[in-house]
Amino acid sequence: RYQEKLALLEEEVAVTGDPAEALHSGPMASIAADDRLELIFTCCHPALSRDAQVALTLRSVLGLTTPEIAKAFLVPEATLAQRIVRAKRKIAEAGITFRAPEPRELPERLDQVLAVLYLVFNEGYLSSRSDRAARRDLAEDAEWLASLLASLVPDEPEVLGLLALMRLHLARASARFDEHGRLVLLRDQDRSRWDRRRIDDGIRLVERAGALKRPGPYQLQAAIAAVHAEAPAWEATDWPQILRLYDALLAASGGSPVVRLNRAIALRQVAGPELALCEVDAIADDLDRYHLLHATRAELLRDLGRADDARDADRRALELTDNPAERVLLEERIAR
Q1: Mean pLDDT (whole number) for 74-89
Q2: Alpha-carbon span 274 to 46, nearest angstrom
Q3: How do residues 90-103 score in pLDDT, each as one tens digit?
Q4: What is the C-alpha to C-alpha distance for residues 294 and 313, in angstroms, rounded to an integer?
Q5: Tens digits of per-residue pLDDT, 303-330?
Q6: Helices and strands in the chain: count of H runs, count of E runs
Q7: Is 201 exposed, middle or buried (0-12, 13-18, 19+ CB in 10 A)?
Q8: Are 166 and 146 in contact (CB under 8 A)?
């Protein structure tokens, strides 16, 4: 059945030149979830660059739009569109076929598959679209695919780490928005509304992954989420432990600016806002198009009594996000 769907995909691509159209029109539109996981592996072809693999798969298999993917990559929409066009051209010129990878080929594609599921989850958890704040169905779909992947490769610690991360985040889903749909930040959430079953399951997955002694970025992110989940209150959070985990994550990610930004939030709790602001300012050029950099910077400036500068930073963040709940939060902060 899967081979038949691959044949249909190739036939549609031959006609349209576009894997996205092939998957979301005609007979390919009815792909089952387990087939989607196989197709994700199939589209993550090693002949393509990592970014091209992930972008094409997000577009072709999971149906994210070009603007949504561009925001996930923190690049202009035109840049992302060109990336996809180049990938399609390479597929055509190199004669890359859509076929199920052999078992020996799966490990070299696993990182890209995890990246796809991670980005889909993030889009569902806090949407980049202007018509809704979150797409919980999309986040839960990514979690389901990750759980299926974990059942297929139960001894891959990064798969377990990603699944743990998703479950720990989804455990807080009911407390993330108030009755009016406004975003509730982690420090202000009613923790009695958190899903303890999901938290316990996520922590077990973190421990199971850790026992395999092959740490990686998803496991470290899940461990950070677990520390937050175990804290009875924001003030009781073990910030030194979170900072140590971010140090490890920063090393594992090769100095990712996004990780540095998140680390700065923990640094603020351990060493104060002034040092944290220095860290944020050091990556400002790298993340100028990322609204959370400016929103974080605004909070630090506000802590330091620089209210006017904080409002300017929030205005910049507002320019960069379409998410309705984030926009309301930023507008309220600017108006204070």
Answers
A1: 85
A2: 44
A3: 877 777 666 667 77
A4: 5
A5: 999 999 999 999 999 999 988 999 999 9
A6: 17, 0
A7: middle
A8: yes
